[in-house]
Amino acid sequence: MSKIKMKHIKKRYDDKNDYVIHDFNLNIEENEFIVFVGPSGCGKSTTLRMIAGLESITSGELWMDDKLVNDVEPKDRDIAMVFQNYALFPHYNVFDNIAFGLKMQKHKKQFIKKRVEEAAEILGLTDYLKRKPKDLSGGQRQRVALGRAIVRDAHIFLMDEPLSNLDAKLRIQMRKEIINLHRRLGTTTIYVTHDQTEAMTMASRIVVLNGGYIEQIGTPEEVYNTPATKFVAEFMGSPPMNFLEGSIKNNQLILHTGEVLGNLPTTFNDLEKVDIGIRAENLTVTEEKQGLMMTVNHVELMGADLHIHGVVNGKEITVREDPKNKVSVNDTLFLKTNVENVHLFDVQSGKSLFEREKVEV
Ligand SMILES: Nc1ncnc2c1ncn2[C@@H]1O[C@H](COP(=O)(O)OP(=O)(O)OP(=O)(O)O)[C@@H](O)[C@H]1O
Ligand SMILES: [Mg+2]
């Protein structure tokens, strides 16, 4: 089993409380690497645990291949899960930690040995099989936790923030290792994180969650370039997207200060109020004394990029520029942007005005 279909899935923990997952719909194809991303409390772990069978489904249908699995026991679901706070047994060595699940399932000794050695080979742990967890680095311990999932030979991997205990450098290394592992094994994977960079760099498709609702499902490119909602626009990308207030009249985009940004590429009805989203890389400092006037309040050299923070029309704005620009705090700069690159959102619903939403049923 490796395809997953989620149809109108809802979850509430008890009758007195509201739903924490509202109408979750998603089709996961074989070999996909799906990332659930969203802020704390949005329902990522709850959804993953429903797929694992560790949490009941209040209503809706969960299919794995051609089988409705709502009431199937976790052990019969052909999944392996890696938790955020994986606990290795401190008194067991690496071999026994990886072998634990297989021993519980009462497999033959020779079979267990073969499986553990294969997993150790894949994860680069062959030389460490006799060590205790305390004598391993954080990344090696994490790999042992992954090893436990791999030996199960399940068709679906579920991972709940598996890298959150690691420092930044190790996280980046493990990110690569997990992607390589997926490339090698091809196991359908659902990976949960609240880190948008992990989502962008690892996913074949991203599911952006907010308050128990799906905001958007799409490839990293789709989610970044055509965010369906203001929430997605703000959540995905670093630095976050900038927002200004404006209006649309005769297909011209006008800032609330009266300044005309330009003619919109597609036809829009007049709108008195619209949220205008502009990514930091779509703003450039111009020598001309016209455009958006910005007062600089902070400058960050990020190596290859310069992040200039300041205020435009009372709003905090970040511009990504070439570090060869010499900019200081309190400078007044003029910025220009191409109207082709702006994002427009309905001020009430937060939905993109460019009907680009991707909703699966
Ligand atoms: N056992 C439970 N009983 C009642 N409510 C719960 C339970 N577990 C989670 N919740 C609630 O369900 C909502 C979703 O929680 P969940 O753990 O799925 O969020 P999350 O997206 O995984 O967050 P985080 O990034 O912090 O791990 C939250 O409002 C949470 O308080
Ligand atoms: Mg969680």
UniProtKB/TrEMBL annotation:
Classification via PROSITE patterns: ABC_TRANSPORTER_1, ABC_TRANSPORTER_2
GO cellular component: ATP-binding cassette (ABC) transporter complex, substrate-binding subunit-containing
Keyword ATP-binding belongs to the record: yes
Residues annotated as domain ABC transporter: 4-236
InterPro entries on file: AAA+_ATPase, ABC_transporter-like_ATP-bd, ABC_transporter-like_CS, ABC_transpr_MalK-like, ABC_transpr_MalK/UgpC-like, Mo/tungstate-bd_C_term_dom, NA-bd_OB-fold, P-loop_NTPase
Keyword line: ATP-binding, Nucleotide-binding, Transport
Name recorded for this polypeptide: Sn-glycerol-3-phosphate ABC transporter ATP-binding protein UgpC
Species annotation: Candidatus Pseudogracilibacillus intestinigallinarum
Taxonomic lineage from the root: Bacteria, Bacillati, Bacillota, Bacilli, Bacillales
